[in-house]
Amino acid sequence: MSVHGLTLTEKVLARCANLPEVRAGDEVRVRPDFVHAYELKGTTDVIERDMPIYGPGKVVAPERYAVFIDHRVPAKLPEQEALHEKTRQWCKKYGMALFDRRGIGHQVASEEGYAIPGSFAVHLDGHISQLGAFGALAIGVRGNVFEAFVSETINLRVPGTTRVILNGSVPHGVSGRDVFNHLLYLHGPQCAAFDVLEFCGPGASTISVEDRQTICGLAMFTGAVSAVFDPVDQYCIEYPKERAPAITLQRSDENAAFTRTFVIDLNEVEPMIVLPPSPANARPLNDHLGIPLTTGYLGSCASGRLTDLRVAARILAGKTLPPGFSLHVVPTSQKIMAEAASDGTLATLIEAGAFLSSPSCDFCSGNIATMASGQTAISTGTLNVPGRMGAVDADIYLASAATLAASALRGRITDPREFLVEQS
Amino acid sequence: MIFLPSSHKARVAWCFGDDFDVDQLIGVANIKVQDEAALTNQVMKQFEDDFLEKMGPGDILVGGRNFGYGHPHAISMRAMRHIGIKAVIAESFFSSFWIGEIGYGMPLLVCPGITAHAKRFDPVVIDFDSYTVSFPETGLTLHCEPYTKREKAILRAGGLKNFLLNERNSKIE
Question: Cβ contacts (< 8 Å) between B103 and chain A: which residues?
């Protein structure tokens, strides 16, 4: 008989392993509910090439598979479009769903019903963890995703769970991104190593679902393999379940064996900034105000959703960016772009001088709008390592959409709160 | 063919600090290169111009805590394997790096205390059965964390793909 209760992760993986119970540390063979991959040269084309060599040459239950064309979008070279075409044919051949230039796949997966609370997904990329905003467990396994394309199952070690109890609510002008960076600042880049970060407590429900996607999507920078929000509210309960109606929502038992527990008072969270050259360098924004900037990037799988675009529009409404300042706005998905177009958000940003582009991963990874040597960016992208957005000697500061917009407006790192006076 | 030996006589080719981002091994400008052989002359360039000339047989890397932190790209370690790096020993590893590189067949060992004792060009002996790292010059032996059963099987096969192929062939036989 178990001494301890079970975590959400253990419950989900036990179901996928078809076992009555699994525990953190167990090596298990699990059948993922969903298998995701984005097209990437050297990865998906190699998977396609090798599938018939290492497996039966077909996928079991192709409805579990989803492939996303979100890199090299739009194609700027014929060989990039040729790869897209090859991916289209691959998906057609195996009966796998293809989401072709619909936006960044991790976001599109949520929009398309793949983030069912209690479900389990694998992807080659770790930012898929953002499906945890809805109580889904999604793990990036890098090249090991190959196993899921040649077999119905994949082997993995059941992760432990680092619990983060959130109390209070975030102050005005502070976002989910600041909450994540606050956690990173307090506890460091290994604070959840090999674990799933699980956010719970009374403060969790005060955080918008978009901010939860941001927080969960950045989980890897604490060393975590994934992240979930305790699925207690309407975001999770009302999430469409057509893709797998039998999957039931799971929650951790109160007496589960958590690896460790952190407690965060959301009232104490302030705007944060991540200093170059590492995503580990989260610091309070107030200690780094005034740094001159030349470039801004509002987008990515972490931030580029309606909340982000709207807060930036609110700050930039009726104002003009400094001469020469390049602000690239890239909504995370086509759906988001359409909504932001229909409510006037995009027009506000464009009128302020922002340059609008269609959803793509390529701004975050330096394939489009690359920075020149010596330039300095503020970005809502995922990474700030040298060369991520162009020249290796161009600095990248990571921050929330609000901090980005305020900083873009001034042309230097700026606290957004003065632009976001609370309306009574 | 077994890719993970019981014992490996090694030499420390380089020692890195904490939270090391492996993309720096080849330079971020090169992370989209597909052919590791094309990167031979780029490897470790930003750390030492003549690193390749100082490489010796069985060389390994030593890392601090959280080795591989960030968003590691596979090409970096492919390039390191191509020039002859046989293993990485570190205080701890970044989860995504660990999961990915074990799958690619790269022997990694978690060895608490390694950074305090290892320095460049030290000869060391790695025992992958007893999970120890020994320094013949001082007689010191450090203990490492053992692999799981599956991790060891994957490393012995030379990576996940070989492991899966062996599994498939054994079923067919």
Answer: 141-144
